[in-house]
Specification:
With about 500 residues, the protein is α/β, with parallel strands linked by helices. The chain contains 14 helices and 23 strands. About 50% of the residues are buried. The chain binds nicotinamide-adenine-dinucleotide (NAD). Pfam families: Aldedh.
Length: about 500
C-alpha cells in the first residue's frame, strides 16, 4: 500500500514561514480525505502578524513608494502568479470542491485578472486633488490627499478563497497599506501560495501576512486588534454582525460583503429556453455556494408548470461528479456539516408543503458514498415566508414561486432581509430596466447571471453588506482623506483671531 504524503503549509508572518504545535486538516470535499495540513494560529500569531505589518507600514518600504512603483511590483506578482496558475488551480481544487472548469476560469482566472486591475488603479487613482482657491474665510489653497490607512485586516470565506481575498489585498496594497489575512480554515492553500509568490517577486516582507486559524480565535482577534485600522470581511451575515461589533471598540473602518437570497424574475415575455438555462446557471454554479446565487425563481402563474418542466429537464443534464474531470458540471458541497444543513432545509420545506421536483437527496453509490454531495434540487409550491425562501441555504437548491403581476414579482423579490443580487429575464429591455429600478439589490443582471466585472462596484443592500468592492473607486475604502489648507496671507489683520482674542494688542 502506498502512503500519500500530506503536505504541511506554513503561515506567512513578516516574510517567514511560521508553524505552531497544533495543526488543522485540509479536507477534499470530493471524498473527505485529508490532503494537507496548516498550522492552527492563535491570537499570539495574529498579534505577531499585525506587529510585522505595522512596522513595515511605518518603515515606508511600501507605503511611501510611488503608486507607479507599487503598480509595477503588483504587475510582476500578477505575472508570476499567472505562470503558477496550474498550481493555484490544483490548490483550490483539492480544498474547496470547485470543478476544474470553474476553478480555472473563475476561482483563479478572475482572481489574477482582478489583481492586475488593482495594479492599474494604483496608477490612475486620484491620489490628490486641488480644491478651488478660496478667499473666505481666508485666502487659501487646499489640497485633498488620499493616504493609506495603515494595517488592513482581511477575513475571507471558503467559497472563492483567492478571488475574494484579492478583492481586499489588491486595493489595500495598491493604496500602500500592509495587510494581515485570515483565510477560511478549510481553504487557505491558494492564498498561502499567492503570498509566497508575492514575496518572491518584490513585495517587501511583512507587507502581506497570512495567519491560518479559526474564525472565533484568529478572526476575532484580528477584527478587534487595536493596531488594525480597517477590517474587510466577506462571509455570512451572522459573522458580519460580530465583526462589526468587534471592530467598534476601536472605531475601525469596516466593509462587509455578506449573504444573499437572489431572486431570478422570469417576466412573461422572456425567452423561456434562455431563462431556464440562465436560472439554472444562476443557482447551481459551484453547487449553489455563491453569495450571488439566484436561489428563488419567480415565474408567472400561467407559465409556471411549463417552466418547471423545462428547468427539471435541463437540470437532469447537469453532470455531478469528481471535480478533477473536465466533463463534470457540479461537484460536492464544502463539508459534512453543510451537507447535513442543506438536506435538513429540504426536509423541512417538504414538511412545510413544498414539492420536490428534482433531487432532494444525497446521490448514492460509487464516489458519492464518500465526500459531501447533494443532488441538484428543485422545489415548487414554496411560499416566500418559508425558511427555505428566506434563509441562505448555500447549496444546490432552487425554489420556484409563482406570481400574477410584475408588481407582485417585485414585491416578492424585495421581501427579503438580503439584497445582494437579482436577475431579470425578458425580451423587452425597457420593461426589464424599469423592473430593475424597483429591485432592492446591489447587483441586477438582465438576461444573465453571475456577471462579476471588476470595473464596476459590487456589494449589497440591506443585510447583504456595507460598502462596495471593485470598480474605479475600490481604493476609496482602503484610503483615508486628509485635507491640507495653506493660508496665503500672513498679515495678522486678515486672520479671524479677533473672534477669540478681542483684547489683544
Ligand atoms: P463564515 O461567515 O462562516 O466565515 C467567513 C470567515 O469568517 C471565515 O474566515 C471564518 O473563519 C471567519 N469567522 C468566523 N467566525 C468569526 C468570528 N467570530 N470573528 C471573526 N472571524 C470569524 O462564511 P463561510 O461559510 O466561509 O462563507 C459563506 C458565506 O459567505 C455565505 O453567507 C455567503 O453568502 C457569504 N459570501 C458573501 C459574498 C459577498 O461578496 N457578499 C461572497 C462570498 C461569500
Amino acid at each position: 500500500m502506498t502512503t500519500v504524503e500530506i503536505e504541511h503549509h506554513l503561515m506567512r508572518i513578516g516574510g517567514r514561514g511560521v508553524d505552531t504545535d497544533q495543526r488543522m486538516p485540509i479536507v477534499d470535499p470530493n471524498d473527505g480525505s485529508v490532503v494537507a495540513t496548516v498550522p492552527r494560529g492563535g491570537a499570539e500569531h495574529v498579534d505577531a502578524a499585525v506587529a510585522a505589518a505595522k512596522s513595515t507600514f511605518e518603515s515606508g518600504v511600501w507605503s511611501a513608494v510611488t503608486p507607479q512603483e507599487r503598480a509595477s511590483v503588483m504587475r510582476r506578482i500578477g505575472a508570476a502568479a499567472h505562470a503558477a496558475a496550474d498550481k493555484l488551480v490544483e490548490l483550490e481544487l483539492v480544498a474547496n470542491g470547485a470543478t476544474v472548469r470553474q476553478a480555472t476560469g473563475f476561482h483563479i482566472g478572475y482572481a489574477l485578472d482582478h489583481f492586475n486591475y488593482f495594479a492599474e488603479l494604483a496608477e490612475t487613482y486620484s491620489w490628490q486633488q486641488a480644491a478651488p482657491s478660496s478667499t473666505s474665510p481666508a485666502l487659501s489653497e487646499s489640497v485633498v490627499h488620499r493616504e493609506p490607512i495603515g494595517v488592513v485586516g482581511a477575513i475571507a470565506p471558503f467559497n472563492f478563497p483567492l478571488l475574494l481575498t484579492l478583492w481586499k489585498v489588491g486595493p489595500a496594497l495598491a493604496a500602500g497599506n500592509s495587510v494581515v489575512v485570515k483565510p477560511d480554515e478549510r481553504t487557505p492553500l491558494s492564498m498561502l501560495e499567492f503570498a509566497r509568490i508575492a514575496e518572491d517577486n518584490g513585495l517587501p516582507p511583512g507587507v502581506l501576512n497570512i495567519v491560518t486559524g479559526t474564525g472565533s480565535v484568529a478572526g476575532a482577534r484580528l477584527a478587534a486588534h487595536p493596531d488594525v485600522g480597517k477590517i474587510a470581511f466577506t462571509g455570512s451575515t451572522q459573522v458580519g454582525r460580530e465583526i462589526m461589533r468587534l471592530a467598534s471598540d476601536t472605531i475601525k473602518q469596516v466593509t462587509l460583503e455578506l449573504g444573499g437570497k437572489g431572486p431570478s424574475i422570469v417576466l412573461d415575455d422572456a425567452d423561456l429556453n434562455l431563462a431556464a438555462d440562465g436560472v439554472l446557471f444562476g443557482c447551481f454554479l459551484y453547487s449553489g455556494q455563491v453569495c450571488v446565487s439566484g436561489t428563488r425563481a419567480l415565474v408567472p402563474t400561467r407559465l409556471h408548470d411549463e417552466f418547471v418542466r423545462r428547468l427539471v429537464e435541463r437540470a437532469k443534464t447537469i453532470v455531478v461528479g469528481s471535480t478533477r474531470d473536465w466533463d463534470t458540471d457540479m461537484g460536492p458541497v464544502i463539508d459534512a456539516k453543510q451537507q447535513e444543513r442543506i438536506l435538513d432545509y429540504i426536509r423541512s420545506a417538504e414538511v412545510g408543503g413544498a414539492t420536490v421536483e428534482l433531487g432532494g437527496h444525497r446521490p448514492e453509490g460509487g464516489q458519492f458514498d464518500r465526500g459531501f454531495w447533494v443532488a441538484p434540487t428543485i422545489l415548487s409550491n414554496v411560499r416566500n415566508d418559508m425558511p427555505i425562501a428566506r434563509e441562505e441555504v448555500f447549496g444546490p437548491v432552487l425554489v420556484v414561486m409563482s406570481y400574477d403581476s410584475d408588481e407582485e414579482a417585485v414585491a416578492i423579490a424585495n421581501d427579503s432581509d438580503y439584497g445582494l443580487s437579482a436577475s431579470i429575464w425578458s425580451n423587452d429591455n425597457e420593461r426589464a430596466l424599469s423592473t430593475a429600478a424597483r429591485i432592492q439589490s446591489g447587483n441586477v443582471w438582465i438576461n444573465n447571471a453571475h456577471q462579476i466585472n471588476c470595473q464596476v462596484p459590487f456589494g449589497g443592500y440591506k443585510q447583504s453588506g456595507l460598502g462596495r468592492e471593485l470598480g474605479p473607486n475600490a481604493l476609496d475604502s482602503y484610503t483615508q482623506v486628509k485635507t491640507v489648507q495653506l493660508d496665503l496671507n500672513n498679515d495678522p489683520g486678515t486672520k479671524p483671531f479677533g473672534i477669540l482674542l478681542s483684547h489683544a494688542d
